[in-house]
């Protein structure tokens, strides 16, 4: 059904060929299956809506980069949405994909292939074409004639490993990066910031990736990014690259906002990031931080104290807040705080206030 | 009935051995002497026979040495090495007796078979062996990056000789068992190079020699040939039992000389009848020889060996002659033979009878054994009866691959009727069809580690193997797991491990798995379940904390070496998805250990340039409330993955 849709789309693309809504971009592609010392030029076609905004993209490619010289090669189209996510294949009328020994793809093979192409983490990702097949045999090296597929069966369509490999790398190669850049370029900061709150995580990741690339630290963007991370702590790992690019001014203010609003597990992750980071943490910076010390788990207390120790950032106010934890019912916490405080010079007014 | 008859008729070879005189058990006696009296131990030698120009006339030395050990290991292949090292590391005094000048058996430079194991299951991936055999293969990756077989021999020599509890006797054949009270009291051996007779006394004997001459002369029951299908319900066994055993192979190697190289076959060459050959007798690639140049036997395969070898050399040269001179392989024009083995690699001969005979249904049914101590997973790869005499058939029947590893029980690794005799390797208690899979060397090596450990525990507990299996199986399996062997589905209970009592265990960062998994008792991801922790970045650390102070002197961790990739030495230095010639990039290279002592972190141990999966950080006993393992560097991967942490007093 999706392939039929692809065929119709292909016809639609043909009709649009001379339309001003169809923009061609020359891109340079390195495909792991193609032996070439230099990137090859390919034509990425951007389709725009009536407002002139990117709608989707297509590129015509060889159906298979053949590793065993036994493949039939056709020109077919790949369609992506505007965020570079694979949508479907587009086969010209009369074109069909072929498996080993010339057997045409069955409808379920097409369905399976499109499922595989929607997986950005496919095992095909890390393989070179030389790793795709090998020989298996008895104790010797020559063994049985014929290739043995060195992949989990779920990672390819049986009899069509080269097709799966070729197409997956077209889908997730340079074309996808170009698509994301072209689309982002068509958006202003407010639009990108708005996408940070998309219900779809792939779109939120796209937005964060692009604001990071733009080094957009305008206060409204900064605010949007911080709130988006709080709303979706899964973005934290990608957020570090954005945060690290930020100038000192406002850096810790942003950090404190996150520490006060993230859930405990993400907060621990952030503490550890801070401990590893080379950013200078001036003493007193964390004085404004409001955290529920008494209800924090040991692991977080340990991570927090680790930051204070490594950054030498314990102010007298922080010490004052820690002292009640000496009586914590969790022995590990009380002991850890005790040992931390023993390394500090306490003032008479550090006691409970 | 038939089976019973077979047992009864086996191994009368004990008769002579039982009559041999026993020698003193409790002391080592070295008699490397001039026997001028001419009467030493009943030998005679003319005191003037040998005119030594430097020192004068004297008698020919009559060299006899008698020594006592806890464990005698016969055979220096993968199984024997692992047995000896396991026994030695677990406290036993060991001698390893090897009848060749090098260690390695079929994998040595003399034969050059790949040290295969669970190379590839049905899912396309390996489930590689860990423990001592992995340590050996890693040792080779570090010290033999050039993939040289002669160097591999010495990688193995280095690996064994560095063990302080092992005496090595190369070029030494174990000729017969000396029996006392139904047990083996000593192994009578002959060292070719020194003209020395050795008598090795011990409590436990492990026969890893493949053919098992010592065991046979001890009267241990064995069988040869193929079981009838009905006996064990084996669908791939023949309907009627017969004597066929899989054959031995002569491998060869060639190299491109860069110019045409004519080939004139030697006179013993047997022309290769290519027109008769089954299509699976592939002639290309040709560079590294043909595993199917093989001759089996349906009778006395041991006794026929030298005659078979002569024929095998003829067949091997015949195939090469066909490649070079038939005109059908122009690509061989510049190639010349570079090496031809003079020692055919054996696949099958005696299979000794234990308390359990492992069979095909156990393997294909993935039977769980409470006394499982090893595993295998090479396909049921039954070579063609007759080998080169039966060209029309496929060279081997790859009956079936495995979904997951099968288990090997301890009861298949000791003799049913000689109480102090253990086995590891192709001579264990199993059927012919079971052997078609389990004969693979890394599988044999796991059996070796199991019986070596068992032998040491027998000494420790003062029991024989059967009693050990009945009363101390938990101890045996736990020791194997601690020493990084893997037993499918066996969860380590880790007695004495203080990490189990920790209040909390956590990591500096986690990209997959969880820090808690490090104490879950399974030290690899298995059956679709994760048992690891992996950091996001490096450096990283794992922290373990206790409520009460604990006294520690050892912390052991198991790191990732990617058991989904094969790392054995191969003649083709293959590099692909499941084979590599490289040190695993996942493996931990350096780390240090800190203990929290009186509230302060104190570095207590460190390891640089680690070369093993199971790292042991030892230090003077320290009282700590926490430890922190700082994981600094891998051999290339930007994250570090661990599978286990243990802490001992």
Automatic annotation (TrEMBL), chain A:
<protein>
    <submittedName>
        <fullName>Uncharacterized protein</fullName>
    </submittedName>
</protein>
UniProtKB/TrEMBL annotation, chain B:
<keyword id="KW-0560">Oxidoreductase</keyword>
<keyword id="KW-0479">Metal-binding</keyword>
<dbReference type="InterPro" id="IPR036188">
    <property type="entry name" value="FAD/NAD-bd_sf"/>
</dbReference>
<dbReference type="InterPro" id="IPR039650">
    <property type="entry name" value="HdrA-like"/>
</dbReference>
<dbReference type="Pfam" id="PF12831">
    <property type="entry name" value="FAD_oxidored"/>
</dbReference>
<feature type="signal peptide">
    <location>
        <begin position="1"/>
        <end position="26"/>
    </location>
</feature>
<feature type="compositionally biased region" description="Polar residues">
    <location>
        <begin position="36"/>
        <end position="47"/>
    </location>
</feature>
<keyword id="KW-0732">Signal</keyword>
<keyword id="KW-0408">Iron</keyword>
<keyword id="KW-0411">Iron-sulfur</keyword>
<keyword id="KW-0004">4Fe-4S</keyword>
<feature type="region of interest" description="Disordered">
    <location>
        <begin position="36"/>
        <end position="58"/>
    </location>
</feature>
<protein>
    <submittedName>
        <fullName>FAD-dependent oxidoreductase</fullName>
    </submittedName>
</protein>
